Amino acid sequence: MLRTTMLAAARSSAVRRLVEANPLTRTVVDRFVAGADTSAAIGVTGRLAEKGLHVTLDHLGEDTTDSRQADETVLAYQGLLAELRRAGLAHRAEVSVKLSAVGQQLGPDGEKIALDNARRICESAAEAGTTVTLDMEDHTTTDTTLRTLSDLRVDFPQVGAVLQAYLHRTEQDCRELAREGSRVRLCKGAYSEPASVAFQDKHEVDRSYVRCLRALMEGQGYPMVATHDPRMVRIASELAGSAGRAKDSYEFQMLYGIRPAEQQRMAEDGERLRVYVPYGQEWYGYFMRRLAERPANIGFFLRSLLTR
Ligand code: FAD
Hints:
Substrate binds at residues 98, 289-290. The protein is of the alpha/beta class. It has helices at residues 2-10, 13-21, 25-32, 38-50, 67-86, 110-128, 142-155, 170-177, 202-218, 230-242, 260-268, 284-293, 295-306, and strands spanning 54-59, 93-97, 132-134, 160-164, 183-187, 222-226, 251-255, 273-279. The chain has a single domain (34-282), classed as TIM Barrel.
């Protein structure tokens, strides 16, 4: 119920104005978002890399409504990738891209516009010596995103995909994508989805996550286990062990600001741990999805609105 309300608020411009107008919001946002610009993103990446962590950077923005905005997003990623290279961080950091931020929703040509724009980002990533993962958005975009992935992989075989365990279809998608050379980030899923396409019960989502993990670990690709759930982390390690996987043949991923001590502990224990670091001005949708995931985050948010 709370989750549904928060996810609805994530799409409401009235609530957005209210949240953004509060001067204390920024303090809380800073816990989850690296900063407003490229230099803040590079600074955080450098600090995480020094601690032995890997990074994927997300230039915040989604639901782009015109091609100029989509173009600006591409330029932002290109600038970021050039800076990563200059800072000697490209071996530690890749980028995560939402196709809706590069034009996927721009009418009947949206798919093609997003593909062309994503291709420009992939070219810059290849020049910098790193790669791209395509984030997954709501279920209406899954087929388009997977089509775009397969088009991009012709020239950029390292491009990764995200699959969401809450969707009924995902176990099958995992089997199909668990091929040699593919990189698949498995998450539970962050959007409000109808029962016709997604499991609604948390336990069912968890069971699906384990089935998907098994398919990925037993397959030939490179699984990226994106979760903060200690149980899923333990099961992923067990499945990797029973599939005979070496530590460098899969990785764990967590979000910036969530369980940072655990991120550090896992890296020190010899796991490859990648932190998803969002940055940029358009933090609202991302921030509200994080609050929706966890009542404790809402408590943290409300407390900081009330206290200085
Ligand atoms: P949950 O089911 O939310 O929580 C399970 C347990 O994890 C909790 O009981 C608690 O023990 C622990 N935990 C969770 N959150 C916290 C916290 N804040 N502090 C302390 N403990 C906590 N979703 C998409 O739809 N598309 C994407 O492209 C996408 N990319 C992602 C990339 C990464 C790297 C990550 C980590 C997540 C991504 N997500 C994405 C979000 C994801 O789908 C989930 O919404 C989010 O990760 C919460 O699910 P969870 O597996 O962490 O566990």
